[in-house]
Each structure stands twice: as C-alpha cells, then as structure tokens.
Amino acid sequence: MERYFVRPDSIVRQIWGDADVVLLIFAGSAAEFALNRAVDWLFFTGRLPADPIGRLFSTVQYAQAIVFADAAQAHQTVSRMSAIHAGVEKSRGYAIPDWAYRDVLYMLIDYSERAYQLLHRPLTPAEQEAVFHTFYEVGKGMNIPDLPACYADWVTDRQQHLQQDLEHTAYTDQLFRRYREELGDWRFQLLRQAQALLVPQRVHTLLDLPQKPLLSYTIGLYSILNGLGLRKWVQRALLPTEYLAQIQALDKFS
C-alpha cells in the first residue's frame, strides 16, 4: 500500500492544491523574504533578482512535489533541496545560518494558514497542527536543528524570529524594484495590497504597506466569482498572461 508524505484528505493538500491560495502564500513570502537578514544568499546565486517570478514557480514546484508525492519521492525531493543548498554554501565558502533555514520553513507554515484563512476560513487547531507537522518533517529531512516540537511552540519561536531576523535594507528595495519591473505598476500595487492583508504586523511596518488596502473591500467577491465559474477569467485579468498556464497548472483539484 502506497504511503504518502501528506495524507490525501489532509488540509495541507487542499491549501497547496489551490492556485489562488498558493499565489497568496508566495505574495506574503515575497514580502518577508525581502526583509530577511540572510537575503544576501539569494543574491549570491543571482536567480531571485534576475527572475523573481520564475523563482516563484520553481519553489512552488518543489513544495507541490513534496505535498503530493508518496513518502519515498517526497524524501528524495527534500534531499535534493538539501543538496542544492549545500552546493551554494560550498561555492560561497560558508554555511547558510540555521536560523535562516528556520525562517523559510516558518514562512511556509505561517502563510499557508494566513492565505487559506483570507480566501476560505480559519484553520481548526487540528489543521494547524497538520500544516506544522508537514513542514516540521521537511525541516527534519533537511537536518535543520532546533525545530519546535509542536504548533504552540512554533508560534512562540515564530514571533522571536520576526523580531530578530528582519530588517529593511538595500536588498529589500532592490527586490521590490524587480517585482515592479516584472509585474508592471498596477499589478505591483495589487501585490502590495495583498501583502498588506497577509503579513504579520512587523513585516507590514518595515515595508510601509497600505494601512487600508482597497483589496480588503473586494476580497469577499472571490467566493462569488469562484461559484459562478469565473475564476480563470479573473486570473487572466489580474496576472501576467505569459505565466497564466503555469498559474492554472498549480490547481490540483479543478
């Protein structure tokens, strides 16, 4: 009997199989990544500033390869991710800090919950634990030390990381310039409004995101448009057309 890394009926699959939720996860992560004190590692390879949207899709592919694979394949993907990072560390001559690995893992946990709540509903305590456990197992597979043992401990450690590991730097401004160049002005403003609805207060403050984003007044239309079968038309209107097929391919249940 095939053993899955994430059970087929898990909320984690619902979250990561919904293209709109996944895009919000990475809208939030894009904001926080830009503030991380270790963001210089992403500039070392040059991939993120050169192609920020392409980097988004490659990261999503890794995440979905883990969430929707059987256990053996998922562990292979985690091992491959670990090897890629080890190669970058070898090229640069020193190690990525352990806290930076935890930061990335914590973002995936946090924005999974925040994005799903924004578009659908809050997670139950059992679902929160399921999301935490999935990425805890990813972290263990990558040999990330000092991971919290449960969701409640993670909440505490997440707050400490937000206070210690974020700062607005020249890298922050450079990344946001690249987001604007790739998306164009009005889509960039839409991104900032989505980020304002998603991110923790410290991220919101450091990026000076909109205090009362107009998007907050229209997000309720999502379920109505979805119910009317207009979702793909909305995606076509809001997102760059050259990426539309890749975006729609993120849907696992449509």
List keywords for this structure.
single chain, 254 residues, 16 helices
Report on the architecture of this protein:
The structure is a single chain. The model has no long low-confidence stretch (mean pLDDT 87). The radius of gyration is 18 Å and the shape is globular. The protein is built from 16 helices and no strands. With 254 residues, it is an all-alpha fold. It starts with 10 loop residues before the first helix and ends in a 6-residue tail after the last helix.
Summarize the structure.
The protein is an all-alpha fold and 254 residues long. It is 71% helix and 0% strand.
Distance between the termini: 26 Å
What is Rg?
Answer: 18 Å
Strand content: under 5%
Number of helices: 16
Task: Please mark out the parts with pLDDT under 50 across 5 or more consecutive residues, or reply none.
Answer: none
How would you classify the quaternary structure?
A: single chain
The backbone outline, from C-alpha atoms, is globular
Largest sheet: none
Q: Average pLDDT value?
A: 87
Number of strands: 0
Which structural category fits the helices and strands? mainly alpha
Helical fraction equals over 70%
Question: What is the H/E order?
Answer: HHHHHHHHHHHHHHHH
Topology record:
Elements: H1 11-16, H2 19-33, H3 40-45, H4 47-50, H5 52-67, H6 71-92, H7 98-119, H8 125-141, H9 151-164, H10 170-183, H11 185-198, H12 201-207, H13 215-218, H14 221-227, H15 231-238, H16 244-248
Helix pairs in contact: 2-7, 2-11, 5-6, 7-8, 10-11
